[in-house]
Every structure is written in structure tokens, then in C-alpha cells.
Amino acid sequence: MGISQELARTPSPVLVVGTGLLGASIGLALAQRGVDVLLSDVSPSALALAADYGAGRPVTVTDRPVLVVVAVPPELTADVVAEQLRRHPDAVVTDVASVKFQILARLEAAGADLDRYLGSHPMAGRERGGPIAARADLFQGQPWVIAEHPRMTPRALELVERVALDVGAVPVHLDPAEHDRAVALVSHVPQVVATLLAGRLLDGTPSQLALAGGGLRDTTRIAASDPGLWLQILAANAPAVGDILQALRDDLDRVLGALADVDAPGARRTLTEVFLHGNEGVRRIPGKHGTDATYTDLVVFVADRPGELARLFQEIGEIGVNIEDLRLEHSPRAQFGLAEVSVLPERAEELARALGERGWQLSR
């Protein structure tokens, strides 16, 4: 999926400082819309690679950017933003770091020109980093937080909103402190929990790990993320993350207490309520297009040979049922995979019957 080729809202040129995953992806997306994207990076090889992939061109001393997007590690962000504000006195400067309050506080303490600064945060990413992992469609349909503060100008707000819209994102307006509390809940704490769970696998034997299924892969996928980057993120958002982890520790203590004597009065009720609360929490996660719609899942066995998955998709299309979501799970010991297809509940029985008639095996 590419970026629309309509006329860009964002004026040229735009300078992207930092050509990692986010910076290079922003450059690719804006360049596809015809924006003149300038690139800067302390690493000459990363800069050259991002330029080779089409994310923009290296900035020159004569370039005068209208907007500067700082996409460097969180611990460097405030200093680089301040430098760009000084270097380009007519430009608006934003950053895409995953924490906002500490950066704004550091800039204010340093006496930076906050009229031309407005932090932002695209809620998108991958486990892989660097310009080689960049994608022009990385932000399509994803929230892009604009961390408003009292000193920002209307021009700064307009330019950052235009960038978000041009890369296909959905602007969301939060103040910096509210943003940091939100990402602690939906991003930073899940990263810590997934990492801790994955760390427990080091004690597993090969025969135990051979039993791993989709549930374990789902809950540990993000544990492959960059430790150095996450150290910076957690350090910058420690209070908000700590509050949630303390509440989670209390929940774990209740579970441990119940498991210590499952026959004690109330122990089974405690465990049951933990799962019920989890069910309620999952239902609060926005689904497709930000809705809270519920779907029915059908699990289809797919032979591990070329063309089988494409055939499944084609036949579901011929039946006239839309796939609302999809998850694939590969069996490590068998020559097939499992395609978990999410559809509207009122179409599930029809789809199951039609697939069966076409020879597909469904898990019951």
C-alpha cells in the first residue's frame, strides 16, 4: 500500500534529522507526495542509504527548510531540537520521540524558542530499525499525536498536522503529560511485560520450547525490540511506567496468593475475576477503523506449499465475505499453517460451510 499521489499539503522543503526507521519512513512518505525532503544524520552511511532508498537528498548549507522533523534517540532529542531551532530561525521544529513532557521541560529550561516548537509522536514502528527497514506506508491509518503546549503558534500546529495527514496518519491532540501517561499504558508497559516474559524462556528446555504456540509468540513478539532505545524511553517516562507496573505488581500478588492455596475460600473467585477483567480490557481495545466491533474467528488449515494462502483469500472473496482481520500461525513440526480469519459474526457460519464444501479443513 502506497501513499496517495495527490498534491501534498506540506510545503517544501522539509528537513528530516535522523534517518533511522521513523525518519527514513517520513522521508519516503513525503517524497512520494512530491515534497522536497532534506536529510541529515551523524552517520554518513545511514544518510547515504536513506537517500539511496528515496527518502530524500542530503541537506546543503544553502537549504532553508520550512519544517524540521527531528527523529533521533530520545536522550538526544531535546539537544537536537534546540540546535535546529537556532540553526533555522524561520523554521518550525517538531520531533517524533515517544516521550514528550521531559523534552518540552528541557527545552523550556534551556530557553529555547518554544513558539516554533511542537512535539509529536507517530504511533507506529517495527521491531527492526534503520533506513533499510523504512516504509512509506508505515503511518497509514495510525494515530499521530500532536503534543500541544501553550506557547505553540497556529503556524506550528498547521505544519505538523499537514505532515501527519500527508503520511496517511490520523492526528490526535494531547498535552505532553497526558501523552506520556497514555503511551505508558498502551506501549511502554506492554514492552516491559513482553520482555520479562520472554526472559523467562531462557530457563526453558528445548523440549519445553518445542511446544510453543501462537499465544507465546503473540505475547513476546515485541521483546525483540532494541534494548538501548527502550532504556532511553523508560528512563524518560519512568514515573508513568512505574505507576502502572506497581498496579500490575499488586495484581500479580493477588494471583500468587490465590495460587498458593487454590482451595482457600475466595481463591478460585480471585483467579476467575482476573480473567474476566482481562476479557473486559481486551474489549476496550479499538478494532478495525477505531471501532469496537466484535468478530468471529475461523481457523483454517493451510498446506505449506506455494499458492495455498492466495487460494484461500481468493475463495473467501468469491464467497463474498470480507476478511476483517487475519493472523497466521505456523506449525513447527507439520507441513501446514493455521490461518485465523476474523469475519462479521453473521457471515461466519456461511463462510465455514462454503469453505468446507470447497475442501478446506477448519479447526472446530
From TrEMBL:
Coiled-coil region(s): none
Keywords: Amino-acid biosynthesis, Aromatic amino acid biosynthesis, NAD, Oxidoreductase, Tyrosine biosynthesis
InterPro entries: 6-PGluconate_DH-like_C_sf (IPR008927), ACT-like_dom_sf (IPR045865), ACT_dom (IPR002912), NAD(P)-bd_dom_sf (IPR036291), PDH_C (IPR046825), PDH_N (IPR046826), Preph/Arog_dehydrog (IPR050812), Prephen_DH (IPR003099)
Keyword NAD found: yes
PROSITE patterns: ACT, PDH_ADH
Domain ACT: 297-364
Residue ranges annotated for the Prephenate/arogenate dehydrogenase domain, each copy included: 12-293
Reaction(s) catalysed (UniProt annotation): prephenate + NAD(+) = 3-(4-hydroxyphenyl)pyruvate + CO2 + NADH
Gene3D superfamilies: 3.30.70.260, 6-phosphogluconate dehydrogenase C-terminal like domain, NAD(P)-binding Rossmann-like Domain
A matching Pfam family: PDH_N
Pathway: Amino-acid biosynthesis; L-tyrosine biosynthesis; (4-hydroxyphenyl)pyruvate from prephenate (NAD(+) route): step 1/1
Keyword NAD set for record: yes
A molecular function GO annotation: NAD+ binding
GO biological process: one example: tyrosine biosynthetic process
Enzyme Commission number, as recorded: 1.3.1.12
Family recorded in the similarity comment: Belongs to the prephenate/arogenate dehydrogenase family.
Name of the protein: Prephenate dehydrogenase
Organism: Pseudoclavibacter caeni
Lineage start: Bacteria, Bacillati, Actinomycetota, Actinomycetes, Micrococcales
